[in-house]
Hints:
Layout: H1 20-32, E1 44-45, E2 51-55, H2 63-66, H3 74-85, E3 89-90, E4 102-103, E5 106-110, H4 123-138, E6 145-149, H5 151-160, E7 175-177, E8 183-187, H6 192-196, H7 202-215
Parallel strand pairs: 2-5, 2-6, 6-8
Antiparallel strand pairs: 1-5, 3-4, 7-8
Helix pairs in contact: 4-5
Amino acid sequence: MIPPSPLPETEPPHDCPRCPRLVALRQELRVEYPDWWNAPVPAFGDPDAWLGIIGLAPGKHGANRTGRPFTGDFAGDLMFATLAKFGFTDGNYESRADDGLQLHGAIIVNSVKCLPPENKPTPEEARTCRPFAEAQVDALPYARIFIALGQIAHQSAVKILGGKLPKCRFGHLAEHRMPDGRVLIDSYHCSRYNQNTGRLTAEMFEAVFARALELRGTV
Length: 219
């Protein structure tokens, strides 16, 4: 059972036709794995969140399979362990969309809603999908701090939040104040590759959330 979107009016349709390459992959996987979600993955979390987490796109064996962001793959283990450590979770993460886990104070929104081949959306696909993420960010009345996971998510987040990319360079723990005062904090993505190569450690990831907590109430 997939939990309902906290922002249902902002989601793309189940069979969104906007990106031909992503549609083709979705159709292939629906044949190969008919029990998987294989559709645009909805946002997950608290619609009254003060912290917005902007991810890249669903992972093949994670969100694309389970229907919930960061659920069921290696990246999700670190994501939800970190959210739990900082008090954002209610319930236990069990790598299933029906594990009953809830988020309080945080919400996860992907910059690209559908699984891209090799986890790499094209710039055109990111642009085409951006209106959905933009609508979701706009629907968060209390979110003043955002975390972008990786450079592609960073680029989308800066544009969604009204910033200028030449002035906002991506870097782990880099902070960017947007024209309306909202703050974007960058993090390397918590992917298996980044963790296995040591580019991102649990301590580095936790430092991003610790900084977000420090900034809460000041922006």
